[in-house]
Amino acid sequence: MNWKKIFCGALAATMIFSASVFAAPEDSANAKLAKIETDTYGMEQSGALLDRISRLEKNYSGQNMNGNMNARIDAIYSALYENENEPGILAKINALEWNVNHEVQSGGVDTRLAALENMILGKTNDGTFNERIRALAKASYGEEILPIALISLPENLLIKVATTVPVGSKTFQEGDTIPIKVVEDVFVDGSLVFARGLTGEGVVVSVHRAKNIFSNGKIETDFNKLKAIDGQDVKTYTGVEAIDAMTADSMARGLSLIGQTFSGKNKQLEEILVHGKNIDLPAGVELYVQIKNPITVYGVKSTGDTLTKPAPVTPSAEPITEPTTPQLTIEQPPATPAPLEPSTPAANELSPDEMNAKPPEQPTPPPPPRDDEILVQVDKPEPPTPAPTAPTQNSPAEPRPDEGKTLDGQDGEIIEIFDEE
């Protein structure tokens, strides 16, 4: 009886071991397929495996590929994530989105490409993902080849991130995942390597719940993964440099997430670490992480302004000047007030030299001519009008009795003498 039980148990263990060994490749292929579908369509698809693979191949290569099921899944996985020979699909679409919005969006590749096409081209296109990306690159960058180059990331490079879900010591447990995203662009050697909106995650290492007035809530999290602009996962952690950066920026909430505090008065830290209270943080807690090991990624060269910003106005070749009123150029005309007044003596009392002499320049320039005025030079002055005028300093108040008389005392005409020259 005992031997029978032992034999049955051994047989069952052998069957379980055999099933696990032979099922491992199938499970690995299913896991890859689910990940590809999630990043392509936004969620895992249903249906027969071969139909799902064929649909993906139509989007990525335009035709069904040769080989067994695992090889076909690996080929799609490489085209989406890996950057061995050229940047993958994720790297290209991330570069396009950042060029348009300066932020990388979440969701499936199919949805993100459709949104870019509607924004840039006004309609969605058919074809493979690479064909659609080339059309968008030409409209966005001016050429089909995206400005992407390999960049080496130094060790301990700092990246500013933020949580995307609320975090609480009362609800979280060890092993839970805390999703994060990049909140500030990071450039290395003039190329973008981490764009705002790229995702990552942290794992809860330990949780300490508040039990009494002398016990505070505490969460310790290891933020160990972050996506670069080319789509590959980069290992990160919160080391000394990250803690120093958070301390300098007074990021008390970020420090509380990694189980760190610092000395000194800080109002935010006091609000979190209240005696006998659990940590209850909203989404959007900012903190720093740093790269664990040096790594090479594809970076996007900065091209300045984004596509959505209005183009600067180019000045015309000829400068635009305001229209000016045409003026008649004359040789120093005498400045006379309007209306004219007979302020000069009679002609019969002036010598020819005195009549031809130019009056002194006035300190106040004449008023500018209007459009309705015409400047005319008069050679012969008009005779004085008999109307009485106000006396001036240079002329007598009343006319003298002998004005208009000849030398023998008879009435006569006023003779005007002009210089023929």
Descriptive account of the structure:
The chain is of the alpha+beta class and 421 residues long. Among the domains are: 1-81, no CATH class; 88-146, no CATH class; 149-301, Lipocalin (Beta Barrel). It has helices at 2-41, 49-60, 69-81, 89-101, 109-120, 129-141, 240-248, 252-257, 267-272, 352-356; strands spanning 148-153, 158-163, 167-168, 177-182, 186-188, 191-194, 199-208, 218-227, 233-237, 280-281, 286-291, 295-301. The chain has a six-stranded antiparallel barrel with strand order 2-4-7-8-9-11. The protein has a four-stranded antiparallel beta sheet with strand order 1-12-6-5, covered by helices on one side. It has a two-stranded antiparallel ribbon with strand order 3-10. Helix 2 packs parallel to helix 3 (69-81) and helix 5 packs parallel to helix 6 (129-141). The longest helix is centred in the first third of the chain and has 40 residues, at 2-41. The radius of gyration is 46 Å and the shape is globular. The model is unreliable at 11-26, 305-334, 340-348, 371-381 and 389-393 (pLDDT under 50).
Secondary structure layout:
Elements: H1 2-41, H2 49-60, H3 69-81, H4 89-101, H5 109-120, H6 129-141, E1 148-153, E2 158-163, E3 167-168, E4 177-182, E5 186-188, E6 191-194, E7 199-208, E8 218-227, E9 233-237, H7 240-248, H8 252-257, H9 267-272, E10 280-281, E11 286-291, E12 295-301, H10 352-356
Antiparallel strand pairs: 1-12, 2-4, 2-11, 3-10, 4-7, 5-6, 6-12, 7-8, 8-9, 9-11
Helix pairs in contact: 1-3, 2-3, 4-5, 4-6, 5-6
